[in-house]
Amino acid sequence: MSSGDRNELFDATGAPRDPARRDFITTAGMFSAAAAVGAGRVGDAEGEQSDQGSGGMPVRPLGRTGIRISALGVGGHHLGDLSTMDEAIGLVHEAVDAGITFFENCWEYYNGKTETWLGQALKGRRDKVFLMTKVCTHGRSGALAMRMLEESLRRLQTDHLDLWQIHGIVYDNDPELAYATGGVLEAFDAAKQQGKVRFVGFTGHKDPGFHLKMLALGYPFDTVQMPLNPFDAAFHSFERQVLPEVNRRGMGALGMKSMGGTAWAIQHGVVTAEELLRYAMSLSVSTTIAGMDSIDVLRQNVRIARSFTPLTDAEMNALRARCAATAADGRYEPYKVSLRYDNPMTRLPHGFPIDSTQREVREMLDRGGNGSWGTR
Fold first, then answer.
1. May I ask the CATH class of domain 40-337?
2. Alpha helices in 7-84, H assignment, sequence order
3. Of the candidates 223, 222, 187, 227, which has an alpha carbon nearest to the alpha carbon of residue 204?
4. Cα–Cα nearest to 226, from 210, 248, 246, 204
5. Is the pTM of this model over 0.90?
6. Burial 229-240, CB ≥16 within 10 A → b, else e
7. Where do the H-state alpha helices sit in the chain?
8. Each residue of 316-366: pLDDT tens digit?
9. Sign of the torsion angle spanned by Cα atoms 89, 155, 258, 101
């Protein structure tokens, strides 16, 4: 990667727009302008079209990898919200039978519980899915990343990952830490050479500027995961800033938090679940990862995905306009404005205190842990 490539500019002004310094959009005319410079809808990115996979589930290309994945993915964190492993196994089995192929997870979710449960659920089904988990060094060494990879493979009961991603680029120095000598990107290269990982990427939900910095520094990621929903369009917008750049580079765009991670906007009657999921799926993404903590939610999302047709530009703009009034304070995207939604393993390596009211923190402390697993 040349120095020129490492310093590419992202828009016509010569620099990424900073969402923290702009007012949120308030008129339909401004929304139309935003759409004109935004990421586009399904089919706008090079080579991107939805086809039908198993069980009538739409499938889409994962960037330029040559792989096609289900347009709806199962989020790993919400598996840990289920009461028992048997319930989680049942949900995963029904999702696979419904044609969902993309399964997300993370080394640190519920202190490893969700990887363990998913591994149990995929016994005899591993070849039917595209399996992703995330590594949680959070600025620590590549050697630690490789130890975490071995633990993830053991929990997931597999000899390789289809996709391994850096978890939680949510602090302003995270890009520099990821690119540091001896860091996680060196582990990416080693894991791919060893055949333990097919593709690599990164995730984050805090500030689009951090994603843009990760891209500008030049590593050839295969995927980028980001929050995408109509509230995002008007506040710290990944849709407007990051998604076009990911598509331009031919990387696989992975959407998450289509319902804000909490579904509070649905509970307050601002939008419906179907509107949110259809909005996210209408963007130019490879898959939309949805947290599903019950069979009923899974079946609702499968129904929406199977009957999916993209929203029109007018419908997209109408949803953005409806959500704009409550977007700017982050109430329906709390992960952008509150440290409470950062996993404790994200905070500790940066020297930030943990929140003992968080469920995962309580579980970690109950087990006698302090989050210092393999400090280097």
1. alpha beta
2. 28-36
3. 227
4. 204
5. no
6. bbbbbbbbbbbb
7. 3-6, 28-36, 85-97, 113-121, 142-156, 174-179, 184-193, 208-216, 238-248, 264-267, 273-282, 295-306, 313-324, 344-347, 359-366
8. 999 999 999 899 999 999 989 877 777 666 777 777 777 777 776 677 667
9. negative
